[in-house]
What does this fold into?
Amino acid sequence: MKRKGSPRRTRSLGQRSSDRGTSPAAAELLVELGCEEIPAWMIEPACAQLKVSLEKYLSESSLLSSTSGLQVFGGPRRLTIFVPSLLLKQADVVRELSGPPKSAAYDANGAPTRAAEGFAASRGVAVKDLFVVKLPKGEFIAARLTVLGRPALDVLAEILPRAFSEIAWPKTMRWPVLTKEGPAPGIPRFIRPVRWILAILGGRVVPFEFGGRHSHDFTSGHRTLGRQVVPVHNFNQYGAVLRRNFVIANPAERRQKIERELSAIAAKQRLRIHTDPDLLDRVTYLNEFPTALLGGFDPEFLSLPQEILITVMRDHQKYFALEKKSGGLAPHFVTIINSDRDRAGKMRAGHERVLRARFADAQFFWNSDQQKCRLADNLPRLDAVTYEASLGSYGLKVARLRKLCAALLAQVDAPESAVPARQLKLETLDRAASLAKCDLVTEMVREFPELQGIVGGLYARVQGESELVAEAIYDHYRPSGFDDDLPRNLLGCLISIADKLDTLVGCFAIGKIPSGSSDPFALRRAAAGIVRLVVERRLKPSLTAAIQSAIDFLAQVNPKLPRPSNLLPQVRDFLDDRARFYFQERGGYAFDEVRAAMAAGSDDLVDLSDRLEALRRIRRTENFPPLAAAFKRIRNILEKSAAKEPIPDTPDPARFSAEEERALHSAAVQTMRSSAELKQERKYAEALARIAALRPVVDHFFDKVLVMAEDPAVRANRLSLLRNLLREFSTIADFSEIVTDATASRKS
It folds into this structure.
């Protein structure tokens, strides 16, 4: 008997399924959700989320074939889904559902009982169609059902609205949709109002509704240059008709067009484009038909620092700056317009007029700030600027910053730095820390907050501060991410670490701890910056001591602030988590290598980095994997035994009865001495090689010696031997954390 839909699950003892018949035909799926302009920075993440949801739902529905090739991409007014090969129908599935035991289903004469009849009725089959199957627990009766596959059109009508509604936009909105009967009910929240839906599978419209709009077989062209209703029948036609209507749907093609036109303009002007990948990403998703347009500005504005000019062009106007090949900015810019050309030059004139006004503002603020007061005179004004309501003003933050910088200077030593800590004067560091936040009250930073720190460094330079101080102020917000540049000198590194560490400790103290995707104070980024600075500049502070200093200074400067008892371990765990992420993602170390090295200590990140590199090198050697498996075995034995009986601190050689345990003890003592010397010299790879060479004697020990001997004294002595072995040789990395083929197979 055939049924539509899935059969109800029962307490069957067994269930088998199989496909029957030939594979259903496939066709391409094209879906486009059209809406009002989506913020450019939200489009890529939304497409990634939409792709994950669709892959999940289409796979669960058994509609994706091995050659489906799902694609999701978007632009400012549309999100597009394309599947080159989607099954038109779910395959029919034959299922065998088992029921009662054969002994209960048939009497002594072989006649069906009420149990068999009830089972047949519940499955919608005749009693005569029941059959017997052999299962591990015995013989049972079973029924065979054929579940008919559903048409893809019906399945997609359910999947697509669900996938669109599950996109986690940072902000959403509702909007009224009027119909002949009045306002449409149940409009879901979405990033922008939905205006049209194109949805076709193999030339047929997929019928569904979302955002108050029903699906059709048409799209819409450019808002001002194209037709508003453009029929579409397949994907090849989709791209062609949109391009004729001044829309480039694929962001990769839009980016290529922008890059091509930027290069052409730069070559014609004998200039070069200021490199800015983030701006390129932004304009790619801001425009449906991007076209590069050259503009110019008065060369007198070039007297301003180029950092200010570039920031105004990039962040405020989304213009690309042009540079001379000999260095320095040229009095030109390139803007990306959402049009095919600049008719009568009005667009160029408009952009030049706006940029002239912005540059004039920047020039006024630059001159005004210089005339009003020196940067150092702004320090008292920071008392009136709130940093955070519970943590007080920026004046208090600077007070903590100065104390913490002094403490860090006493801890670190960076011989690789251009200015080593031993040659750095405390008064120079204190001067830079005092001035680091003073630009926050300048007119320039109030108008262009993106320039905080940079403006302080520029003002410090023109006002006669030393180059070391100016660079440190300029750089102290760096790094803002994993790919950002680090501060150029040691002062900048110390101030950056102190600033980020004070932020971490302060926010954790008042309960502003990141959770999920919520991180309003960018604490994850701050912690990642600390890790990068310490590791890549090879600074060597104790993380625990640095955090404790930050906690102490917070209590001194903000005495009324609560001080949670678990503040130190909380911040330390948070930094460890960022360090773990850094070494795996940026360092390329395996997760178990990072875990093993951090288990041996993570207070000194430079030392941790060196030990990780040594571990990665020695891991490839022949002796290491078997020894790592043996250490895991040792740890398991000790964990099981520790709760049952006391284990002596050191083994007694006089109690050794087997030659193998005497050999292991002797080899371990010799290796401990030689590896200790190597560790003292930070020659971790050589030390690990010495330890790995213990592999044969460890193998012989486990082959010949029964650790859990019946004699309690002998057993305790052998356990002590193993504990000493594990403890002494886990100071570089905890071998037992390494996943080997042997340990992986035992887990599986």
